[in-house]
Amino acid sequence: MDKIYAIIPVNQFANAKTRLSPFLSPEERKNLLKAMLKDIAITLKPIVDDIIIISKDEEVLAYAEELELTALVEEDHKPSKASKNGDEGSLNKALKQAMKWCRKKTRKVIILPSDIPLIGKTNIKLLIDQAKNLDFIIVPSKGGGTNALIIKPLSIDMKFGGFSFKKHIEEAEKKKLVPLVHDSFYMALDVNTTEDLGEIMLHGNGTETKKYLESLGIKVESFRGHERLKVTRDE
């Protein structure tokens, strides 16, 4: 059994990407997340054995089925008393649920967020091929997070949340696993701010996400202020 499954947790479409408001309306943010999920699915389908979307949101699960992905209904997870952030605790429990569901079906899992639409610009197949011989591969995100984790199901405790990259490395070392860090500009770019949208406009040729942003009249130019990119949209 030399299979690898992708696991993508998605909270909900409603109120998605709130840091992008008021630049994008709630409906536009929902459609942005759909476009990003589609880009990830298009990239992963030829190179993984299954893609699991885990969510409580019926609309998310229906969209997963529309994309011909496996939709897994997230159970109600009560936040841990030790967790300062209930959402982070629920996320980690959802990932544990998904890994329990697939551990007898696959040897490895790749855990990814739903907002890395430039994944197709990377050599993700090479990374997954490496996972056949390595038990811990991690891709950092901007700001100290984790944007991909390839492991055996349930081999470490999930630590998604603030500065999860360091926490996952520590978990690996506790289990005597040797971490391989794969540093990728494209996979490090998760979309949360208007400047991130500008990066998609610059680097996302051929993606559904860039096509969608173009349909909204979004433009980017170089800027010498506190942000490197100035992102605007047609009135």
What does this entry look like structurally?
This protein has 235 residues and is of the alpha/beta class. The protein folds into two domains: 4-188, Spore Coat Polysaccharide Biosynthesis Protein SpsA, Chain A, CATH 3.90.550.10; 194-233, no CATH class. The protein has eight helices and nine strands. It has helices at residues 26-44, 58-66, 86-102, 124-130, 164-174, 185-188, 194-203, 208-215; strands at 4-9, 50-55, 70-73, 108-111, 136-140, 146-151, 180-181, 218-222, 229-233. It has a seven-stranded mixed β-sheet with strand order 3-2-1-4-6-5-7, with helices on both faces. It has a two-stranded antiparallel sheet with strand order 8-9. Helix 1 packs antiparallel against helix 8. The longest helix has 19 residues, at 26-44. Residues 82-86 have low confidence and may be disordered.
